[in-house]
Amino acid sequence: MAKKQKTAFVCSECGADYPRWAGQCTACGEWNTVKEVKLGSVGRREHKAGYAGAHSEVQLLSEVNLAQAERISTGLAEFDRVLGGGIVKGSVVLIGGAPGAGKSTILLQAIANIALRQAAVLYVSGEESLQQIAERAHRLGLKTEGIKMLAETSVQQICSVIEQEKPEVVIIDSIQVMYTLDSDSAPGSVSQVRESASYLTQYAKRHNVSIFMVGHVTKDQSLAGPMTLSHIVDAQVVLSSTDDARFRVLRSDKNRFGSVGELGFFAMESSGLKEVKNPSAMFLSRADKAAPGSVVTVLWEGTRPLLVEIQALVTESQYGNPRRLAVGLDQNRLAMLLAVLSRHGGIFTGNDEIYTNVVGGIKVSETSSDLAIMVGVVSSLKDRVIPYDAVFFGEVGLNGEIRPVANGHARLNEAAKHGFKRAVIPKANKPKHAVSGLDISAVANIQDALDVLADLYQ
Prior knowledge:
The chain is built from 11 helices and 23 strands.
């Protein structure tokens, strides 16, 4: 019986699919990006083992082997931190980032370090020529004797070479240009990316090979391709630059073997990406003269504290429609904090324009910065300077209470390590024992925090 050809209409920008052609993609808003793609033949197909590479068997949960997965160090401590302690054997990691972020550079550095330990590695390039990669490695000053290279885009051919060479770590640069003979669509299409990633993942699980797949990003900096790609892989990390183009931030968005949200910090230099051992110092390069609205808080990113500066600017509205702008912060949470400040703190800002910014390009996703944001707004409104040696953290509730945050003692130790002398924290986070060199003020509500703030003004 003849097999039926199945097609779909897919947006080339974001990967959204539609039952029929449309002029505009409703998902990303782009025009003339919805294309017809072939998904391959529809017929009876043998279902092989799943992504884990083994046929399913019923087993008692209590009898499952709890042995720790063996890990391979990349030689970059910050990279290992984001991966949860190193590369897990047989795992598949998707690394994304904007063009020029340094994805290929950091992976080339990593496999060069692995090769120095006499481990077999393979770098598969589907975009750059081998000469270009060799020139980059020479420019970075890497020892390349143990790095094996392959220029190929067919996943079947790649897996055949892996079978012969038997490397421990394989780099696929990039998954968007790979293709599989099982799909009739063009390389880069949604179905090709999905089938290629699926094929490589199954091979990695069956043969205990660690694979890194480089992924492209769309205009909104999200990973291109089908959402299935994120579900298939074991870990997904994104390399991005901060406001200062010299620095790069590696963030874990998904990790089956470690913490989600873990951050790694690097500095881009002529010799490649160098680890930043003390990221808090990187984000605390403050002006020589203290200014109103500038306040320091302690975030918790992954498994470690991070000191960052939050700035607030309150100015009189000139057009009768005050703006609220938050850069690096949740816009809706800023509006909520201003309402709580008005209701429970007696400070009305409805007629003022308010701008807030997290210095260094960090995106704040947790609520521990609530107290610092509120303090910065009050400081700018009253035009009073907060001392350089003061740090604030705590979540603010709708009733004006200051709620505790996780890992309070570790945050205080980080602040003391960087020379801070005073800390304003939630009452429930007050440590039982004093923190060396740190004068701690524990507050229960907004009014308590405003009273302490009045004593701190310079």
